[in-house]
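Help needed: design a sequence for this.
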């Protein structure tokens, strides 16, 4: 067995052990990204081989938590990809205004900066008070940061993003300074429910009018992408909106025919049909 085959075997063994012990399923994550993260953790540990990490992962919960951080999506910022928020304002918000109440799901919310960005947008468009935002992630550490809404002073540098996204005031109106940190204002926090949810194994969030799932699918292989997309479409109302990341697409997926390419430049899709029973069973 050559080195590459041996590493592939060790990685499979490691992922099976993690799934059996902790219930986290990384077995269908995209291979290159997965291998890079595992090797990064190996380099930072006192283990010589990937197989040495198996026992350490099973018996050292702190070591597993470090690995979980490695596997989490932590790249986020206020009004990331401003054009997306601008298109939401211009194209999606007018349609959401027709509902008496609005449910939004931000799947894979990381530390919450983009969730608060959306809450600010909804506030400025007069919709926040009739909206409930559900923000979920499988990383409890990230969720705790998001729930508190406390960030470094670096957050102030996203004023330009905010304006490019159609911001109508100043970003500073939505947080207060506290020594070397900033805290998002309470009226934003109270409209957001942060909760644990694992897209690879947990159930749907029903009756959502808008789902944000940006820069999450790129870490999954095709089979897992289709499974998660089945969950997302089942969580959307008819004519509901799904927003993906800049490098993500519904093209060539199992549900591409279920959506209109509503705003291609911003990766905003609109659900057009109910999910066939066969696809529900697969999802």
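Sure. Designed sequence:
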């Amino acid at each position: 067995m050559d080195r590459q085959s041996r590493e592939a075997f060790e990685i499979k063994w490691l992922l099976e052990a993690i799934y059996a012990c902790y219930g986290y399923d990384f077995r269908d994550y995209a291979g290159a990204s997965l291998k890079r993260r595992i090797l990064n953790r190996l380099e930072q540990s006192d283990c010589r081989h990937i197989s040495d990490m198996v026992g350490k992962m099973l018996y050292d919960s702190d070591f597993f938590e470090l690995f979980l951080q490695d596997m989490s999506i932590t790249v986020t910022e206020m009004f990331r990809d401003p054009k997306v928020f601008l298109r939401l304002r211009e194209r999606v918000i007018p349609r959401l205004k027709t509902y008496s109440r609005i449910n939004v799901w931000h799947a894979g919310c990381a530390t919450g900066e983009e969730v608060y960005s959306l809450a600010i947008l909804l506030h400025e468009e007069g919709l926040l008070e009739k909206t409930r935002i559900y923000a979920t992630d499988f990383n409890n550490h990230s969720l705790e940061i998001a729930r508190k809404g406390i960030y470094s002073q670096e957050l102030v540098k996203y004023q330009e993003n905010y304006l490019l996204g159609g911001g109508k005031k100043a970003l500073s109106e939505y947080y207060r300074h506290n020594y070397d940190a900033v805290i998002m204002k309470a009226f934003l926090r109270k409209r957001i429910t942060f909760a644990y949810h694992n897209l690879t194994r947990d159930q749907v969030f029903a009756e959502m009018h808008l789902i944000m799932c940006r820069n999450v699918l790129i870490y999954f292989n095709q089979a897992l992408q289709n499974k998660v997309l089945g969950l997302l479409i089942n969580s959307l109302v008819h004519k509901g909106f799904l927003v993906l990341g800049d490098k993500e697409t519904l093209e060539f997926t199992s549900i591409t025919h279920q959506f209109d390419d509503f705003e291609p430049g911003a990766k905003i899709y609109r659900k057009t049909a109910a999910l066939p029973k066969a696809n529900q069973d697969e999802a």
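Residues 277-283 have pLDDT under 50 and may be disordered.
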